[in-house]
Amino acid sequence: MPAGSDKEFFTYSKKRRVVLTASGVIMSIIILPISCLMIIKLIEGDSFHVVMKFIDLIRVFLNHPFQYFYSGLTIFPTTTYSNELSNYLSCLAEISLFLGIVNALPIPVLDGGQIVITMLENKMPKIKDKYTIINGIGYSIILAIILLPMIEVFIKNIKTTFPIILFIGFIIYRVVKINHRFEKGSKDI
C-alpha cells in the first residue's frame, strides 16, 4: 500500500487502489528478477537464456511451496555463476521473487490482502469500517507465521533452549506485571 493514511488510500477509486497495490507485487515478482537476469545475460554471454532462468526461479517455488516459505531466505542462491556480480544479481532476483510472492499472499496487511479487501468492498460495504480490526487479524497471522517455526525449533531443542525460554517467560511476566501496575495506578488518578 502506498505511504499515507488508510483514510487517504480509501479516497482513491477502486481501480486506482488495485493498480497501486498490484504494481509493487508485479515489480517484485516479474520486473526486478527479469531485469537482474538480463544483466546477468550481458555478463555471462549468449549461452544464458533469460526466460529459461526465470522459469527455473519460479520452479523452485512451484516444486515445494511450503518448504520455500518455511526455509525463507536460507535457500538462496539456488544458482551460482563464475562471476561474483552475477551471483549477487541472481541472489537479488531470487530474494525479490520470494518477497513478492510472500507480499502477494491474501493476508490483510500485505498487498495481496489489500487487493482482496478492495475487491470485496462492493459485497461487504462495511469492510472499510472494520479495517483496523482486519489489519489486527493480519498482523496476528504474520506474527504466527514468524513465531511458529521459532517455537518448533525451541521445542525440538528443549535441552539447549530451556534457559532462553525461561528468560523470555520472565521478560513477558515483568512486562505484564508492570503494565498491570501502570493501569491500576492510572485508574486511581
Task: Walk me through the structure.
The chain is mainly α and 189 residues long. Helices cover 77% and strands 0% of the residues. The chain contains eight helices and no strands. It has helices at 6-11, 14-44, 50-63, 65-71, 84-103, 111-120, 131-156, 158-188. Helix 2 crosses helix 3 (50-63), helix 2 (14-44) runs antiparallel to helix 6 and helix 3 (50-63) crosses helix 4 (65-71). The longest helix is centred in the N-terminal third of the chain and has 31 residues, at 14-44. The model has no long low-confidence stretch (mean pLDDT 82).
Give the fraction of residues assigned to helices.
over 70%
> Strand percentage, roughly?
under 5%
The rounded Rg comes to: 22 Å
Structural class: mainly alpha
Average pLDDT confidence is 82
Brief synopsis:
The chain has 189 residues and is mostly helical. It is 77% helix and 0% strand.
Give the tags.
mainly alpha
List the helices and strands and how they pair.
Layout: H1 6-11, H2 14-44, H3 50-63, H4 65-71, H5 84-103, H6 111-120, H7 131-156, H8 158-188
